[in-house]
Amino acid sequence: MFFIALAVIAVLIGADQLIKLAVVNNLKLGAEPTEVIKLGSTKIFSLQHIRNSGAAWSMMEGKTWFLILLPVVVCGVGIWYMYRIRKGSRLELFSIALMIAGGIGNLIDRIRLGEVVDYIKFEPINFPIFNFADICVVIGAVLFCICAIFLSSDSSKKDKKPSEKEEDNNEQPET
Known about the structure:
Helices cover 61% and strands 14% of the residues. It has five helices and three strands, in the order H-E-E-H-H-E-H-H. The chain has a three-stranded antiparallel beta sheet with strand order 1-2-3.
């Protein structure tokens, strides 16, 4: 399963980079948004090519070396952890693969361009423009939290010896 997760990472990075290439080649940097989804008179999603030299919401703008070093370390730890749990939960492996792919997708931009290509604009609220790699990171993080909350408690119950389970069930509350 570990090698499948690595393949998922490669496919997602490739998709991210192809989408960003299409954006760079077809949308003028800083131009007005191009409507993609509209319900009646309400805009839902637009495409707008911008660049972000910081992290989320342009935080840490100008801290390029930190924004390169941090994902390298996090992705390295993530791959090590994926290998460590390679025979564990597929959902957990997939969630980590999503986060690593998103991190590497944006890391490639940062190394190549010194900034990240963003293009998806969610119109109903004033939300920062983002990209496919960001979506991978967020979905991966949410899935990982679900695994940590629900799967880890299940596995701790499975890890208990039958005699420990019986002792837990036989305990009476003190009065």
